[in-house]
Amino acid sequence: MSDPFHGFGFGTTRLGLPWWGFEAGVIAGFVQDTAHQAIADVDARAEEREAVRMRRSLKLEEIGSIGTFLSGMAAMGAEGSVPIIRSVLAVVTQDDFVFLDAIAQQDPAGELGRIHRGGVETIEVVDDGGAPVSADFYDPRLPDPEGHFGLVLSCRDGSANAVKMAFRFASVVAASEAAERFRRDASPPS
Questions:
Q1: Which fold has domain 65-185?
Q2: For 163-189, what is the mean pLDDT?
């Protein structure tokens, strides 16, 4: 007959109360070591995030940022035949729109592209099929219509070549807000 207050038995082997004290000490030590490691990991991640924030901040200062906004998702190159889709941050400078990866940890200081603010000719919100969406198509006070929407910028690069840039949004309201921001900031102040 097993006595639950004096030990736990395995076959004929019985583990007495002193064993439980040892086991509790081992478990407590393991928990304490794990907690210390978790705290060290949190501290290391916090230091890493701060370093990334500093690099992004230095990049924004270096290019002369006067404003930023999310410009949507865009295909930025490809790995083999699979396009790399990234969330893009538009940075407004005195003369240009500079595009950075919105996720600073990816590349806090690298530029994805740059266009001259004065070179933007048209800014258009389009639906999944590429058809223009009129401003009265949506009401920001109502639920978003179904589907994905795009924002297409037609512009001239430094050598006067026509360039189109496209950004994708899951919301017509978000696409329209980004379009408004591009329109507002398209012409640099004189």
A1: PH-domain like (2.30.29)
A2: 84
